[in-house]
Amino acid sequence: MVSIVPADEDFLAELNITPGSSFFCLNAFDGKQSVGYVIFRLDGRQVVIISLETEDEVIADGLIRAALNSSREKGAVIAVCRIKTIYSILKKIGFNEDGSNLSAEINEVLTGKCKKHFNL
Question: Each residue of 44-56: pLDDT tens digit?
Fold first, then answer.
């Protein structure tokens, strides 16, 4: 079973993230094996997805949603991402193009009320 948890201090140090800063990291584990992580930054009422590392699209979806939920609990309402390699995953969960970024209202993504994109 996969669990998504906040990164421990050792992992944060490897990523040069200072605990208590505006940067956060969540790790996905299958048992004791790390299967991915997401790094995100809070900027007022906005969260920016900085990095997503996993080889599994389902894990990616879970990490993104977990990051959005954590950010919402900290006051964020909008999510933004500039990582073009994960645009297809983000569009599937409700992110929309906004200039050179993708963005979404966090509540709409987490409640399933956003516009869905499907490959037909």
Answer: 999 999 999 999 9
